[in-house]
Predict the structure.
Amino acid sequence: MSVRGADAPIPSNQVIRISAFKRMASAVLNVVAMILRVANKLRKSRPERVVVLEPVGLGDMITLVPLVHELLDRRFEVAIASKPEWRPLFPDRERQTWVNTRVPWASHNEKIKYQLGLYFQEPTRGDLKELRAVAPGSIGIDTRGDVRCAILLYWAGCKRVISLSTYLGTDLRIPRVAAEIVPFDNNVRRWVLNLGFLRALDSSADLDRVPPPRLEHFIRKEPNHRVALIPVAPWAGKLWQAERWKAVANALVHQGWEVVVLCGPNQTSKAREQVGADLPVYESASLEQWAEQFNRCTLVITLDTGPMHLADALDVPVVALYGQGKLPLWAPSGPRSIVLAHQDSPDFFVCHPIDKNTHLGQKFMNNISVEEVLDAVTKVTKDAEKRTAGVGAN
């Protein structure tokens, strides 16, 4: 494991291109961040307190688990600022606090993202008040490289803000005048990238000994012969063809597997569009319900989604289907998990998951065949059998 000290060149097809309008908006926001940074120089310092801000998705939050654990082990006070639904990922520990942080820009709904009036309404208004009570003098950590996060941390009162050098692998950079910088590394997973913030706070930290995300408090394994399919994602560009989901499901049923479909709240109809009417569909409205389902699974076949990262952190093997998703940044870390993607094809490039790129995402997803998925299932199950046999022999 490594987090390099300088940016390495990123292949052109691996850089997410940001529009000219958003680049201009970012330039203005960088000036705002710089002004706030200078203004906060006079604040009384609280170097023992760290505010980790991650207001977006489940997968993002799971990749923070190793960083938060390491900070707490080094006697830092850690305030985690995110959506309240992700709080169960972090059981109560001494010197750890939680701050609900719901901001419009973190929404998948593009109509909500830019409604400035929402910042003055509940729940965002109350959340920001709570953050402002916790942050003064602290060290703020923006693991996204998002200047909006940096500004929020400065506004809340952080004396220092440490940010990723680019907005999660895009060509949008945060200048050093706006924040202290952790270089983006194109060759590591997100949770490893996050450990760069630990190195920024403790130069002696041995990152190679830090294990990947694992949520022991959710693991309650039950004997089974069950495969779960997760065919729904927030962005339509991540969807795989419905006919292929049905073909995979039919083949697994014929092999003797119990096949179920998992989805989030109010997604049953979308799931049935992908897999048909014959398979049972279970909606999970909370992390606890997702964990309960995963604990009953031998393996999970899934799109690139937050629940995929949850299954991986519960030590459930996943067969993960990737189209345009940036790898290895978002790859699972489990030793028995398999990523299926065709990102070495000549026409491939990583693109931003927005509405106008939906057709590109689906084009890249369609390069994955039914046979590849079934072969991956066979490999995972054979590896599991070898592991079990090895344990029995010992």
